[in-house]
Amino acid sequence: MAPLPPPVYGATHPNLLPLARERSPTMQPHAHRPLFLLAASALALGAGSVACGGDHDDMHDGGHHHDGGMAMNCSDDPRADTYAAGLEKASENGHFTVTLRTADPAPPAKGDNTWTIEIRDAGGTPVEGATLTVTPWMPDHGHGTSIDVQVAAGSDPGTYVLSSIDLRMPGLWEVTIEIDAGGVTDSVVFAFCVEG
Asked: Yes or no: is domain 87-194 CATH 1.10.540.10?
């Protein structure tokens, strides 16, 4: 049995060399490969920077995320809470009740947001001196934000002002508030559809 010919890469196969010479008499085998690889790399890097960073308005419009040609609108997403001043939620393990007293802007919107929340324990007593960790997250995109949410005690017992909640792009945002108070840790999630 005769050995197999070498694999064909570009115009290096003996049967293809005459065709390559007809197209470009000065072409060397693989002469354009570095240029092709450079162009392909630049395209791949450019696509990656548009998908994961850069100006987010270029890849979003009106609450639709352009992801592989499929537009997604979160306005009717069942995971999203309907904003109303006084929106109340129980924490995951039932240790606390968290009320979203106010949001600025209301409803939560693209950009910088400030919320005032009230935390009560299971008996209804305002929780003061809690340590809060606030994490905005886009579950459909798999990323959060690089800006840390600032937490300050509010003017009423058990209230806290959360500022610099950076909802930087349209889509579904989950804002997890982890509460550590009196040796008990629990969390609550508020989810909102942010329009563009």
From this structure: no
